[in-house]
C-alpha cells in the first residue's frame, strides 16, 4: 500500500508554472495589464454579468470599500491573486443581485420561519468539517454543499421560476415544481472547476482541508455576501480591515445571511439546518438573534495541535494570493484572534442558561469513535437509530482520515512555543480542563 503523501511546514514555494505566470504577467504591468480593484468598477461588472441592477435596500458599501482599501494598500497581491480577488468580489455582488431578484418576485421566501439550527462553532482544525459531513448524512438535515455555498443563488435567475400553481415546499407532502439541482444549473460545474484550480495552485491544501464540490462547506460564505467575515484575513494580509471588522456591528451581515438561508430552504426543503464556521465563535449572540432556534455544537482539540494546523492552512491560503507571506506575521495575527474568539463564546456561554444550548465534542473521540460522540448530539432528537449509524459508517468508510495525504506541522514552523499560545488561550484551556474533569 502506498503511504500517504506528506505535506509539512515548507510554505516557501508554489508550483513552478504558477510562479512563472505571475512573473510574466507582472512584467507586463507597464502595458496596463494590472487588474483594477475598485468598488464602482466591481459593481458595474456584476450588473453587466447578471443583467440586474438592484443590490437591495440593505446593501451597505462601506465593508466593500474597507476591504478594497486593505487589498490595494496592504495585501501585496500577485497578478493571479488580483485576478482571483476580482472574480470573487464580482461573484459576491452578483449573488446579491440575483437574490434580490428572487426576494422581489417571491415575497413568500422571506415570510418563512428559519428551520431549527444545529451550528458547529469549533475552532479551525478541530474536526468541524468531519462533524458537519457526518451530520449531513441524516436525510432530514439541510446543509450547504460547496457548489451551493459558492453560488447560493442560481446563476440563471429564471431557471427556478415557478409557473402559476406550482409549489416549492415539500415539508407537507407537496411535490417540488422542479428537480434540484436543475439539469441546466451551472453551479456544480463552476464549483468543480474551482476545486480543480485549487488543486493545481496549492497541491498540499487538500491534505489540510479536503474540498469536494458535492460535500458541505462553511456557511461563512453567506456572510461574505455582505463583505463582513474573517475569510479575507485568512487569505490575505489586511490588518486595517481586520481591525475595523472586529469593532464593526455585524448584525446586518447575519440578517442577510438569514435571508439567504431562507432562500435555500425555499428552493430545497428539509427540517433542520446543520451549519458550521469557526467565525461564529465570535458572534453567538447574533446567531441566536437572527437564526432563532439554535443549538451550538462545539468540537474541542488540544490547542497546541489545532493552532499550528490552522496557521499552516492560512499560510497555504495566502500563498495563492501573494508572493510575500510571512508565517510569523500570520502567527502573530491569528493567535491573538483565536483567543479573542474563544473568549467571546465563553462570555456568551457563561451567561444565564446559555450553557444548556451547547454540546461539547472531543476531536480524538470523533476521529476514533464518531458514533459515541454523535450520540451526544442526538440526545436532543430522540437518539441515534441503526439506520443513521449505518449512514455514518458508510460515510467514514468512503472518506477516510488523511485521504488526501498527511498534513504535518509544528509550532516551531511559526517560531512559537506553547507559552505563546497560553498567553491568549489560558481561559479556554482552563474551561476544557474543567470539562474533562467532570
Can you walk through the features of this model?
- The chain is of the alpha/beta class and 438 residues long.
- It has a single domain, classed as 3-Layer(aba) Sandwich (Rossmann fold).
- It has 20 helices and seven strands.
- It has helices at residues 16-27, 39-50, 62-73, 79-105, 108-111, 128-135, 146-150, 187-201, 205-208, 220-224, 231-235, 239-247, 251-267, 284-291, 303-319, 327-349, 363-368, 370-378, 386-398, 418-437; strands at 6-7, 117-120, 141-142, 272-276, 294-300, 358-362, 406-407.
- The two termini are 42 Å apart.
- The model is unreliable at 169-175 (pLDDT under 50).
Blueprint (SSEs and pairs):
Blueprint: E1 6-7, H1 16-27, H2 39-50, H3 62-73, H4 79-105, H5 108-111, E2 117-120, H6 128-135, E3 141-142, H7 146-150, H8 187-201, H9 205-208, H10 220-224, H11 231-235, H12 239-247, H13 251-267, E4 272-276, H14 284-291, E5 294-300, H15 303-319, H16 327-349, E6 358-362, H17 363-368, H18 370-378, H19 386-398, E7 406-407, H20 418-437
Parallel strand pairs: 1-7, 2-4, 2-5, 3-4, 5-6
Helix pairs in contact: 2-4, 3-12, 13-14, 15-16, 16-20
Compact description:
This protein is of the alpha/beta class. It contains 20 helices and 7 strands. The model is unreliable at 169-175 (pLDDT under 50).
